[in-house]
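Box S1 | Example of a co-folding query
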Amino acid sequence: MLSYRNLEVLTMKKEFILITGANGQIGSELTAALREYYGSEVVLATDIRPPAEENGLFEILDIRDQQRLAEIIRDFKVTQVYHLAAILSAKGETNPRWTWQVNMEGLFNVLESARQHQVEKVFYPSSIAVFSDKTPRNNTPQHTILHPTTVYGISKAAGEDWCNYYFLKYGVDVRSVRFPGIVSYLHPPGGGTTDYAVEIYHAAVEEKPYYCFLREDTRLPMLYMPDAIRATVELMAAPREQIRVRTSYNLAGMSFTPAEIYDAIRVHYPAFQISYQPDFRQQIADSWTSSIDDSMARKDWEWEPEFNLEQMTADMISNLNKLKTLQYV
Ligand code: NAD
Ligand code: AKB
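Box S1 (continued) | Returned holo structure for nicotinamide-adenine-dinucleotide
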């Protein structure tokens, strides 16, 4: 079992954990991690679609269904909610109204149920999508101009303020980070602008050329999944009085461009080829910032990422190759 800062304090208590959007890129790995620490019998995964395989308690839940959500929270005596269900940036632009409903009604339902049923803690992932071309581009400060231009970003920015409101007005202990693009090998990403940084590794390992939907010089903040899971667990385990940002913490891991990730991959696959064919996602990426100042997270709950681009690349390629070998066994 991995060891996380302060986690032993939490695991000594009697907890029941609810995860929404549990079958997605982050949810499937976070669910496994929380089951490992707390025990499968106290972690209920939910999603609007069934999981590829069931490894513990699971229920279908549309996060827009407030009544069912409240029943689950009441009946299971839920103490912590990890609210991951959302529509991401690129997919969100294909149907703004639906995206707003899932992202905003979903969060509202979680906050209201948490208030009514005295849930002890709520985790809400925000995103670098809250930033815009009005935001300082490099080393983006914690407290800064937002004005997002995608429906996803607008919903996350509003969501941050609602989290702060529920904390100030009702004392709901909501904790949040602005995740950069998350890179992982186990489950595919769900329709974001940073998805290229996952797809490119799959192409390399399959020894196929990669057609990148962003320009080669598009620098974005990114984070490797093990760091994202650790950030989530450590933030939730930190003492309440240490959490001074009640909107959402800036969180950084690394920043790179498609040209730089390509170079990192070519250390392992010298013949790997890439070509650039920017599409509508370029405009979204251009509206986000390049690097993030996460000093508040470092100060308040001792956040520190472990993986840089080279370490992540070696780990991604090694794990994708293991999965490839398993497929042929
Ligand atoms: P994902 O798209 O992979 O997963 C989202 C899950 O939500 C899916 O399994 C989907 O079936 C589910 N869902 C969609 N509509 C639903 C509904 N109406 N009711 C219940 N479930 C529904 O997303 P992810 O990458 O796992 O992201 C999880 C959270 O983290 C999201 O809130 C996202 O905004 C945030 N985030 C992710 C990243 C990233 O790079 N992956 C970056 C920043 C923030
Ligand atoms: C997306 O690209 O939409 C997500 C995110 C950064 O929130 N990966």
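The chain has a mean pLDDT of 96. Residues 268 and 314 are 8 Å apart (CA to CA).
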